[in-house]
Write a structure and sequence with these properties.
By secondary structure, the chain is α/β, with parallel strands linked by helices. The protein folds into two domains: 153 residues, Chitobiase/beta-hexosaminidase domain 2-like (Chitobiase, domain 2), CATH 3.30.379; 367 residues, Alpha-Beta Barrel (TIM Barrel). The protein has 18 helices and 19 strands. The N terminus is likely disordered. The protein binds ligand TNX. The site of ligand TNX has 9 residues, from loops. Ligand TNX binds next to loops.
């Protein structure tokens, strides 16, 4: 239960977590008594259906705000009311009078201010047959409460009721991420916004925008126009599966592919995400996965080039050369990126950078000698440290894939552990923050069922159940080390996803399983309960026009 201020403490959260299992059972058994069972995803930390009663929206229902002059609060109210108005036809006026608790037929949004601790994204909600009262310490908390409220309503109905419930909710992890690779395939701003809307509905708070890769540079950089003039387009794309070792002749699709986001569009996306309490972390890949940039500016490679934007997938040997001019170029690019993205974190990639060119380059070898480095791994570490200190001078923090551990981690770097959990474990033990994104559980480019029955995917098998069973905190970590696990993220690499429909098919419903992993208390997770709630959520996804993969019933691993 909350204290007087409605604030949830750590102990209370733990207690809540323990209660939820039994509450879930209670919710399940009470299902026939309640007008409609609650189907909220991610499962709130504490939820209790208080009876057979329901709050029924009608033509007289009003929305009241704790401070009617607060524009953010008003905006929040409108963001919830608008779609409900559209679906129900009720006008739901936002009344200009201060809210009075429990006023009949009123949905009250209350911003209580106060402390922001672990639960600064939390909220409390009380739905009775008389009124709805939603309160939080922060606008983000209210926003999450409103997502829950949206999910308590039916999707298509004449019966605009929501079950009477008490909810006290706050996320388990503060980093709840979804990634999207727009380098391999470009997706328009309209889709990026739809993606952000869906992230927000399931309380994901970070969008990792993978903006550059070998096959495409997707962000306008004013000082280096060729990055997009040349680097944003490729001649065509390999047809079908691109095996690492060719066992058949190369066949291209004959269709040029490309596109990029202007700086105005980037600002638009960042603002759109911000209004939904989502932080956008840009990724600018270095020193590897840089062929598109080198096709535009070959002078930053170790060999002369020329380079073309690749039409196949994989790992490419031409990477940035550690010349002074290269650092100048990258700092110029990052300067423009920093101006566009308010996020504290900037992702610099760091993965899959073959060292062949550095081994052969007199210049790279001179840098190794000059800096007293042992080998090319340490040269990569030197590279990343230089970029980190540049970011720090601008008040930003560096994130990189787990390869940045090789040759020594940059002092303040946060590590995204993708090749399993080991990189994350090692980084946490060294006192670095970690985001868990292992291929085993959070790669949404992997198959989600038998490859023989599925459209082409890169490899692997990551079923919905497997995502649901993911535990981001490795048991080998001490409690202290575990505090470095900031959260987890689903990665969406798009080599084999050339359309937005395809992306949606791969992401949904797996993202809903991940949302529960990163939001709900560990002990509250329950596959049967999730499966039941998912059935209702799929109606939301239908309504939103999402091309999710159908769930075969009963949901099996
Ligand atoms: C590895 S995950 C990559 C990506 C590929 C992905 C395919 C990571 C940091 N690098 O470049 O798209 O595998 O699953």
């Amino acid at each position: 239960m909350p204290n007087k201020s409605g604030h949830i403490t750590h102990q209370e959260l733990l207690l809540n977590a323990l209660q939820v299992v039994s509450v879930t059972v209670l919710v399940l058994t009470a299902a026939c008594a309640a007008p409609r069972p609650t189907s909220v995803i991610p499962l709130p930390a504490y939820i209790l259906e208080t009876g057979a009663d329901a709050f029924v929206l009608d033509t007289d229902t009003r929305i009241a705000l704790s401070d009617p002059t607060d524009t953010e609060l008003r905006h929040l109210a409108e963001s919830w009311a608008e779609p409900v108005r559209e679906a129900s036809g009720f006008s739901l006026p936002v009344v200009a009078a201060p809210a009075v608790t429990g006023e009949a037929n009123t949905v009250t949004l209350r911003l209580s201010g106060g402390t922001t601790e672990a639960n600064d994204e939390g909220y409390r909600m009380d739905v009775t047959s008389r009124a709805v009262d939603l309160s939080a310490h922060t606008p983000a908390g209210l926003f999450y409460g409103l997502q829950t409220l949206r999910q308590l309503l039916p999707v298509n109905s004449e019966d605009w009721s929501m079950p009477a419930v008490v909810i006290e909710d706050a996320p388990r992890f503060r980093y709840r991420g979804m990634h999207l690779d727009v380098g391999r395939h470009f997706f328009p701003v309209t889709f990026i916004k739809k993606y952000i809307d869906l992230l927000a509905l399931y309380k994901i708070n970070t969008f990792h925008w993978h903006l550059t890769d070998d096959q495409g540079w997707r962000i306008e950089i004013k000082k280096y126009p060729k990055l997009t003039e040349v680097g944003a387009y490729r001649q065509e794309t390999v047809s079908g599966k691109n095996f690492e070792k060719w066992d058949r002749p190369y066949v291209g699709d004959g269709t040029p592919h490309g596109g990029f986001y202007t700086q105005d569009e980037v600002r638009e996306v960042v603002a759109y995400a911000r209004a939904r309490y989502i932080d956008v972390i840009p990724e600018i890949e270095m020193p590897g996965h840089a062929t598109a940039a080198l096709a535009a500016y070959p002078q930053y490679a170790c060999t002369d080039g020329p380079f073309t934007v690749p039409t196949t997938w994989g790992i490419f040997e031409d990477i940035y050369c550690p010349k002074e001019e290269t650092f100048q170029f990258l700092e110029d690019v990052l300067t423009e990126v920093i101006a566009l993205f308010p996020s504290t974190y900037i992702h610099i990639g760091g993965d899959e950078a073959p060292k062949t060119r550095w081994e052969e380059s007199a210049l790279a070898q001179q840098v190794i000698a000059r800096e007293g480095l042992a080998d090319e791994d340490e040269l990569q570490s030197y590279f990343i440290r230089r970029i980190e200190s540049f970011l720090q001078q601008h008040g930003r923090r560096l994130i990189g894939w787990d390869e940045i551990l090789e040759g020594g981690l940059a002092p303040q770097a946060t590590v995204m552990s993708w090749r399993g959990m080991d990189g994350g474990i090692e980084a946490a033990r060294q006192g670095h923050d970690v985001i868990m994104t292992p291929t085993s559980h959070t790669y949404f480019d992997y198959y989600q069922a038998d490859p023989d029955t599925e459209p082409l995917a890169i490899r692997g098998l990551t079923t919905l159940k497997k995502v649901y069973d993911f535990e981001p905190v490795p048991s080998v970590l001490s409690l202290d080390e575990a505090t470095h696990i900031l959260g987890a993220q689903g990665n969406v690499w798009t080599e084999y996803m050339s359309t937005t429909d395809y992306v949606e098919y791969m992401v949904f419903p797996r993202m809903l399983a991940l949302s529960e992993v990163v939001w709900s208390p560990k002990n509250a997770r329950n596959w049967e309960s999730f499966s039941r709630r998912l059935a209702h959520q799929l109606q939301h996804l239908d309504k939103l026009g999402v091309n999710y993969r159908p769930v075969t019933a009963p949901a099996t691993p």
